[in-house]
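re: ur question from the group chat, yeah i did fold both. here u go
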Amino acid sequence: MSFRPPDEAPADEPAEISDPRALRALAHPARLTILEHLVVDGPATATECAEVAGLSPSACSYHLRALARYGFVEEDPEGGADGRYRPWRARIVGIKVGPQAGRTEAVRAASRVLVENVETLFDEVRATYRDRETDYPQEWQVAAGSTQDVLHVTAAELEHVQEQVRAVLARYRRLNRQDRPDGARRVYAMVDFTPGFSPDAPA
């Protein structure tokens, strides 16, 4: 298993994970929150990450070390010169699990837990917004929301659709603050393509 830091890999090429231990390590909700914070907001100390994750600094340090063990994060070599301020940084921007056909049962089980926990975090963000939707400016209420549709495609076409969607989203990720226009705010996007047919249904 290998990872490329964000400054060595294009943002639209997530690291591929095939180690079930790494998937299980990342699936912890607190670690997902910590990794997201480091990816989106840049290097941060264990104390700063703890505030975001709702943990004590010592508990957060434990989770950071667990993430570092599998190459997700590392101590920022450009920070902490005085030995007291010790920031961490993300080594990846995104992840993907190895090809479905080659997955072991352990990888399938671990990836399912990871996906379910990511979806739970997104659901919490969505619920928080819904609770206060009317408090947001009208322009954001109009712009936000979800879109549902039904597609009739081949497997190759669906893969192409996913590639196009990922490319569009990647253009607006703007992890570098200098790339964000005035008025840009953080928005969570989740696009889900779910087969609506039985696996033994005739083509």
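okk and heres the other one u asked abt
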Amino acid sequence: MSTDTQDSVATGRRARALRWSAYAAVPLAALAIVYFATRGAGAGSQASVPAKDSATSTAGAPGSVAPPVMISAADARRIGVTFAVASVEPLGREIRTVGQVTFDETRVRTVSLKIDGWVEQLFVNFDGQAVVAGAPLFAIYSPMLVAAQEELLLAKRLESDVSGGAADARANATSLLSSARRRLSYWDIPPADIARIERSG
């Protein structure tokens, strides 16, 4: 390796070393400036504070007891300070909030009809009226129900008319009567009401 090449390599190394030194020196210089600036400000503020007595100067020390704050009776009345004897009592607490009063969903029943019709009379007139199971809620007129009752009566008459006829006719009439009864029972008509329709016509 020639002398010129060695000199240029050494010069490059020195330049890199100087650059890295500058990078490290700038933050150190900034830290030193901040340290001395804040130290001077703290010293100046301490110099301007007048000397206090020993009780006050040790109030902020760990384990020390702060002196009591004394105010006059007029100042106490002005800011609303009151005095009372300490005692053990239940502590009442008032909470104001917003709520919604609603019904108990576990006791709600849905009444749905299986027939079409018109409500002719209401026995329950307002929301929240007390009712018991089995009490009538309304009276309804339904042409569907009237037609089904007429079919039942017709099947009943047919069964009595063919009672002395052929076995097939009697079986068909009985099957028709059973079908008419079943149709009414599917609409939740009680068996006692179905029997009363057959009896009274």
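fwiw on the second one: The chain is about 55% helix and 5% strand. Helices lie at 3-48, 54-57, 73-79, 143-161, 167-186, 191-200. idk if thats what u expected
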